[in-house]
Structure prediction request, 392 residues.
Amino acid sequence: MSEVLFLPPQLVAASVPASFDGLVLRSERVERIGDHRWSVWVGAGRLVDREWVGGRRGFLGASAANVELTELLWQRPWDFGVVGSVVLGAHEVRVLPTGPRGGGTVQVTGPEVLDGVQRLGVLARAVAEGLPAGSLERSLLRVELVTGPAVDVVRGELDAEDRRRNPATAQDELVRDPNVLRVMRQFRADGVSFAVRRGEVREPYGAGRCVSVEEATSALACLAPGARLEVAHAADGAAGRERLWADRGGESYRAVFNENTEAVGVLRAVEIARCVRGVVARKGRGKRYGHAHLWRDVPQLAVWAVGRQLPLVELHREGRGPGAVDWDLLVRDRLELLTAGVAEGLREAYEALRPTAGGRRLRHAEVRELGFWAELMEEYGAAGDAAALDSL
Prediction:
């Protein structure tokens, strides 16, 4: 690979030879970005009608990423080049500067694609399918040109980039939800950190006044007005929470975060869930056998069951005036006793459904399944109804 050749102003008038069979790019902005490297902004039309060589992969056609990129090109061509770039290696680059703003004509000899095969393939297919010329003119792409020893360096770094990239997750999109942002601002005004973004410091609540979105989601899935058992079950683990967060327009997600969600309700839910989990953890301490393993294996189910005994319709409302729920009093004076009773009721319902004898192996995996949760809650509710009738 040879050195980049930059022509001085007195040679600007030199025309591109008619016999030149390389790539010619005309741009209003050409800038040097390092040794043997240039950045050029060009219209997408300059990059079609050409057989490209290079790249680790060929055009992947109807991959999910390419389908989305194609849709962007057809619907909003002016945004097609907002992010991303095409990186080309070259034997030689000659720049013919024109105009006072850094524009110029760039001759690229022996172009080779180092990165951008998919973007170029999307362009070529869209043109073949009738993309209007006006759309191409409105689409600007950044093309990086590399020559000399920089080619192997850039190629190696591009190959390594996939390993270094942190893939986006559904949690990363939570800060785009206006309801979550509103709750974050409410918490901030009260001096509490609502840790939504991955990578934020998750301090212990007692020390740093911090509530994590993971804990808030798990608690609200059990205690938010309109919460359902299947949502509570899903939100008990990281994979289930990701699926829940991924469907921000769905019914399950909106049962957790919606226009009525308030920081005060989130905090109440988290404090209730922590209290319930603490009680069942103490009850299960030291009990290695028998149906008490239920408390250790599925504390989330205990949170759900306790929630059925609480005035959850008032969770996100400020408690003022006659008849308002005094949540502080409820949590401080009643919740532990209520939880202990519910936990014992769940254990008794479990024992009635799955009596063990003769060394029969306990169903530790089964109690984590949604179907069993529904079965157990049905038995627990029936047992509660029977007890109520007996007391009459």
